[in-house]
Specification:
The chain is of the alpha/beta class and about 375 residues long. The protein has nine helices and 14 strands. Strand 9, helix 4 and strand 10 form a beta-alpha-beta unit. The radius of gyration is 26 Å and the shape is globular. The termini are far apart.
Length: about 375
């Protein structure tokens, strides 16, 4: 999970920004600044049978370390084994390994299947050497900073009547092809601009620019998602007129982008019929965070073993409010419904901006009248 591994730190590059910039992106650091001096000491203890174990334990000065003693002290019989550090094993029919400070929430090992579960604790993630509590604090810090940038983006969008949509999916779902088709079909109806997110290359931004629409490529390097700060910098380089449609194509990833608000009006998750109908169950956070699911490449359904009804049922199991559209960016099937959804959202953004302008004008008129009365 990127909120603890620090993915992409210092790797981001935004077109037109080829130099190092000192501002602080909302990227995670899985360490304490100023407290990264590691050392080890050996921890020894003796069992009742006379066997002595010695365990080296790395420490940071902030004492945010975790260690696991993978040995069992014979103890209470309950049907499965819990291997705790300095505690008794309990027999319960399956084995569970826990790290210090994270009882029953770090990682579960089911003996009958061999499955490992690392997302059961408060952080819903695992990072070697970090307790669940520490991971939660890191994530809160990172997302708090990101959300502040997202609020700034959202305010900018509202002031200018911009309808911003965050397109998320796994790689190969057809996001860029869908964007190209959308831009071509909206020509003459609405101005469209694109922020393109990829780890490397400007291939997708070049495809967008070939349609005549402005696009800025954001290369995240080792990063696995866009964040609100990156989008804010991209906006500085896009000339967006009022009442525009902004399409943000996120890095291909069904995990990390779910947690990062970019200031958009909606997350739209794109699932192609070539990927398998169980994706909503495998990646529930993303489908739960989205407002719309586009089932793309439906022109290929006659050649695939894909159960549309089952896929939609899985998606609604995760998010009962999720709207679903079926389309093909290649054949054009279903595109009118998608364009109608976009134009309706843009219309709402334009209307909200106009209401704010009208309120401001009314307030100015009231102040001018008071000033005239006071002078008279």
């Amino acid at each position: 999970m990127c909120t603890v591994c620090g993915c992409g730190q210092g790797e981001t590059r935004i077109e037109g920004h080829d130099h190092e910039h000192p501002h602080d992106h909302a990227h995670p650091h899985a360490h304490e600044h100023g407290h990264d001096h590691a050392h080890e000491h050996a921890h020894e203890h003796t069992h009742a049978d006379g066997v002595t174990h010695s365990h080296p334990h790395p420490h940071s000065h902030g004492h945010e370390h975790a260690h696991v003693h993978e040995h069992s002290h014979t103890g209470h019989e309950h049907g499965h084994d819990h291997l705790h550090d300095d505690s008794a094993a309990h027999e319960h029919g399956h084995d569970t390994l826990h790290a210090t400070g994270a009882p029953h929430d770090h990682m579960h090992y089911h003996q009958h299947t061999g499955d490992l579960h690392y997302g059961l604790g408060p952080a819903h993630a695992h990072a070697p050497g970090l307790s669940q509590e520490r991971m939660v604090r890191i994530e809160q810090d990172i997302l708090g900073k990101n959300n502040a940038y997202a609020d700034g983006n959202r305010k900018h969008f509202a002031e200018h009547g911009i309808f911003a949509v965050n397109l998320v999916s796994s790689p190969g779902s057809g996001k860029t092809t869908l964007l190209v088709k959308t831009i071509e079909m909206l020509k003459g109806q609405a101005p469209v601009a694109v922020v393109e997110g990829d780890q490397q290359t400007s291939h997708d931004a070049d495809r967008i620019r070939a349609t005549g629409a402005p696009a800025i490529q954001v290369n995240t390097g080792k990063g696995c998602h866009l964040d609100a700060h990156m989008v804010g910098h991209a906006l500085e380089r896009l000339t967006l007129p009022d009442d525009s449609l902004l399409m943000i194509e996120n890095v291909g990833n069904l995990v990390c982008p779910a947690a990062f608000d970019l200031g958009e009006a909606h997350k739209v998750v794109i699932l192609s019929v070539t990927e398998g109908e169980d994706k909503p169950l495998k990646y529930p956070d993303m489908f739960n965070a989205a407002d719309l699911m586009i089932l793309n490449k439906v022109d290929l359904l006659p050649y695939l073993n894909f159960d549309v009804a089952k896929c939609v049922e899985y998606a609604h199991r995760v998010n009962p409010k999720l709207e679903v559209m079926q389309l093909s960016a290649t054949s054009g099937a279903g595109m009118e419904e998608w364009l109608g959804w976009l134009m309706a959202g843009l219309g709402q953004a334009k209307s909200a901006r106009q209401q704010n302008v009208d309120l401001l004008r009314k307030r100015i008129a009231e102040l001018e009248a008071k000033l005239a009365n006071s002078q008279g």
